Amino acid sequence: MKVRKIGNSLGVILPRDILNTLGVEEGDTVDIVQTEDGRIELAVVDREADDLMSMAEEIMAENRAVLRAIAK
């Protein structure tokens, strides 16, 4: 697999069969982790959990002052 320029970044294009196996579609989120032995692991982020996390982050940002007051 070749590293290619994508916009201002570098990246790799995953073959369609791997994307299909992972169940990944355009716009999905994946986590990339380097293991202790130097390998790279790619994991699909649970879409529902990702959506819930985004909603929680938005609510916390909108209510930061209230949450700080409650924490005291």
Automatic annotation (TrEMBL):
Annotated SpoVT-AbrB domain residues: 4-50
Keywords: DNA-binding
The protein's name in its UniProt record: AbrB/MazE/SpoVT family DNA-binding domain-containing protein
GO molecular function, one term: DNA binding
InterPro entries for this protein: Doc_partner (IPR013432), SpoVT-AbrB_dom (IPR007159), SpoVT-AbrB_sf (IPR037914)
Native species: Henriciella mobilis
Pfam families noted in UniProt: MazE_antitoxin (PF04014)
